[in-house]
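>> received
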Amino acid sequence: MIKYQQYKHISFDLWLTLIKSNPSFKAERNKAFKEIFQPQAPPNLIDTCIRKYDLLANAMSEKTGKHLNAAHIWALILNELGMDLQKMDESRWEHFNAETERLFFKYPPVLIDIQTPELFKQLTEEGISLNILSNTAFIPGKLLRPLLVYLNIGQYLHFQLYSDETGYSKPSSEMFKLLIQQAGSIRSLQRNEILHIGDNPYADKWGAENAGISAYLFDSKSELLSSRFT
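>> returned
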């Protein structure tokens, strides 16, 4: 159980802590990628390449503490697939970005625990301030903010920190420093009055504890978030 009453501020990781991807989104995005850029490679190889760089980007951002830009990741994917980046028309990039955004809202991520809005409402009514602290790869913060409003949890968040906007990635001390600073701007508090909850042992738990705040390692596959607070 999370003894949340001892904290004044609770920070949440986003992906695989609060939300998970709609399985149709990645399939449709990959389809759009193939149609727009037309790489000369088998479809299954393209899917494998995208997945490879998705995982690599996450690993690199965690290891370096720096955000890896989505455009750079897609450029690496195209390069590996044999595309000449120097000959790439700028309109293709714009078309792909627009299509990715359209598909993201057509096939939006879903809450892992449908009780999350009620949980956030309860916590804020008890005087606890909340935030999101999330690494991003292909999906930027500018798309996640309206998504969280749509999922009925955005209104309970005092602030949101995304790696593509800060330039830092968890478990970087700089990322957690921003969390501590913004939580402290809401009201006076000590580091031991801040709790960060996430699913990643390194990025979330180690990162938080290294920054001097409390951490709770959460496994959404085996427990519901709301059940940890009852």
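>> Residues 4-20+110-228 form a domain with the Rossmann fold fold (CATH 3.40.50.1000).
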